[in-house]
Amino acid sequence: MTEAATEIAVDTAIKESAIKMRGSDVSVFYGEKQALFGVNLDVRKNSVTALIGPSGCGKSTFLRCLNRMNDTIDICRVTGEITLEGENIYDPKIDVVELRARVGMVFQKPNPFPKSIYENVAYGPRIHGLTKSKAELDEIVESSLRKAAIWEEVKDRLHEPGTGLSGGQQQRLCIARAIAVSPEVILMDEPCSALDPIATAKVEELIDELRTNFTIVIVTHSMQQAARVSQRTAMFHLGKLVEEGDTDKMFTNPDTKLTQDYITGRFG
Amino acid sequence: MTDTTADTATAAGHPKAGSLYQVSERTRRRHAAEQRFRMMGLAAVTFSILALLGLMTSILSNGLSSFHQTYVTMEVFLDPAKLDKKGNRNPEDIAKITTFTIQPLIQAALAETMEARGIAVEGVNAKKAVELISKEAPAQLRHFVLDNPEVIGQSVTFDLLASGRIDGYYKGRVSMESAALDRNISPEQLVLADQLKAAGILESRFNWSFFTAPDASDTRPEAAGLGVAILGSAYMMLIVLVLALPIGVAASIYLEEFAPQNRWTDMIEVNIANLAAVPSIVFGILGLAIFINFVGLPQSAPIVGGLVLTLMTLPTIIIATRAALKAVPPSINDAALGIGASKMQAIFHHVLPLAAPGILTGTIIGLAQALGETAPLLLIGMVAFVREYPGAPPEGFFDPASALPVQVYNWTQRGDPAFFERASGAIIVLLVFLVIMNAVAILLRRRFERRW
Asked: Last residue of some domain: B187, B217, B247?
């Protein structure tokens, strides 16, 4: 009890500098339909924030707002404010390409480019002009693949197509590709939903390691996964943020009955 | 079967389901319906194959013979007294000789050859005998002499075209009976032809000039070839490819990836679809009005034909390209955008390469369509009788030329049945080109198709 109490105290006293991204009153409309209702959510630096909730609750929508991937949908409209280190990312003067270089994304289904493993990872650094020489690029590719814990498996076949890897390897390749441009935040949209338990375990382990260098936001349908990898959890329902807090507290002593029911599997 | 019996058994108190060998009336009817549908499908396929076979047989049986041609091979003495009266071998003077001057040389040569071999047919004098040889022959000799003035005074062996009637005799088009009624040929001349053939002077061989020679006048079908038409068609295809592919692909990428979805783009989309359905002759009128009358481009020129066919091919290419772009999974686009590629980079680095096989296939099919198009070309004057080869591009694009399908149309309009054979032969050439293009389309698709 006392432990929880101190945690709440810390929670409220969290320093402004520890906030990486902040969503204030974020609402999203798909044409006439409103998908997200005034969400306020902070993403803390160097931590894993899990977004949970039943299907269609708006958690993926919120995630895609964080690097403006929703821009690709014509009828999508976002109101409210999302900041990255205090800068509003929906400011018309912001260049979305710069934003996405700093806020990378890993998708639900592994989607490597139909090119070689090397090209997959090298593409990002190349278009952003991060390297001056081939040697530098090689180095980035290797370190990214190492950070994504896939180097040992692919080092002998860097020039074979990335699509020839197994599902779990493909997803780690996609993570390596996201890491290669050295983003500050990595968004993951159900990264393990297409993977088997062994691959899932590897990716989860990886997420935990990545936390030291990156800020991670992950959408997941698996309660166990949220409990295992995240430090903060946010529960969405019907487009509204129901509750957010430290993962330990959310899973042991949630404030709302809705969260309690969802986590224990009584609904959703 | 099991589900229906189970349903009826529970719902309607159907007698308990028995052996699986017992088929219910309802199942039997379902199977019968399936059987009927299969038979209909099979009948439809059989019908189309038969129709295709019929078409191919008709074209091949009429047209294949045009790839062979009857030639008379003999020595002709190039008499300096006739060809170079002044005896100074001045090219300008030699250029003045006409085919009328040369005709007697051929007549004499044939008479001499016949005499040497002891060939003679009653009622066929030297003047009649030389009618076996095409009216094209003197022109052929004249060109040879102009190109090689040093041969004057020598005897040279020539392969001279036999006349269309003689050629037709060996292709079954002309018979003794029909010759008796024909002003242009007599049965005696056919007898002479048979004797010349027996002597090896007259023979049939592969007709290369069918592919290289220009068109010929009504009286000498044996000399008519597809050279100008093939060149004209090739020029037009080049123009269509160079114009329609970049314009079509650029328009598709813009419409598919950049254009906002609003009333204007909807209208453009509908109109592109409509454009694909516009009758081709309308494009011909457009070409005539705009490119020839307004812009002032020359008539019968491949440039005008190419522009008109470009307009016709654009909708096909745009529709195919948009379909190919749509078929690329959005996850690839997302992946590129997700690591900070700009929209243009995502499209050009990732989406377009994946769509390329589809785009190429669409383009080649559009080109094949354009290659076979006739109606618009008639209106812009491509149907004209053209004997001069167009020059090398790009100037050649503005020279008069013909086109393959128009040449077919043109030949079917002529009186001599020998032209009908030529027309069928030209159709075969056209079909071969189309088959090659479609095969290339399939190959490209197979080769570059990538999995993702």
From this structure: B217
Question: Which of B261, B338, B354 shows the shortest C-beta gap to A105?
Answer: B338
CB proximity A147 to B under 8 Å: no
Q: Among A86-95, B9-18, B301-310, which is the least confidently predicted range?
A: B9-18
The pTM (predicted TM-score) of the whole model is 0.80
Q: Does any CB of chain B come closer than 8 Å to the CB of residue A105?
A: yes
pLDDT in tens, A31-77: 889 999 999 999 999 999 999 988 888 899 999 999 998 888 888 88
Last residue of a domain, one of B217, B243, B270: B217
The answer to whether residue B222 is domain-embedded is: no
Mutate to test the interface with B, among A113, A160, A182, A185 (most CBs of B within 10 A): A113
- CB spacing of A97 vs B333 below 8 angstroms: no
Asked if the structure places residue A28 within a domain, the reply is no
- Mean pLDDT, residues B239-259: 93
Residue A75 is assigned to a structural domain of this protein: no
pLDDT in tens, B11-22: 455 556 678 888
Give the domain range for residue B24: 2-63
| CATH number of the domain to which A159 belongs | 3.40.50.300
Question: What whole-number distance in Å separates Cα of residue B249 and Cα of residue B259?
Answer: 14
B256/B384 same-domain check: yes
Establish if B332 touches chain A: CB-CB under 8 angstroms.
yes
Tell me which residues of chain B, numbers 212 to 271, contact chain A at a CB-CB cutoff of 8 Å: 260-261
- If asked whether residues B120 and B200 sit together in one domain, one would say yes
Is residue A258 domain-resident? yes
* Whether residue B152 is found in the same domain as residue B102: yes
Per-residue pLDDT band at B62 (split at 50, 70, 90): confident
B151 and B256 housed in the same domain: no
pLDDT digits (tens, 9 = 90+) for B162-208: 988 889 898 888 888 888 888 888 888 888 889 888 888 888 889 88
Q: Look at residue A56 in the predicted model and tell me its pLDDT.
A: 85
| Residue A131 falls inside a structural domain | yes
Number of domains composing chain B: 3
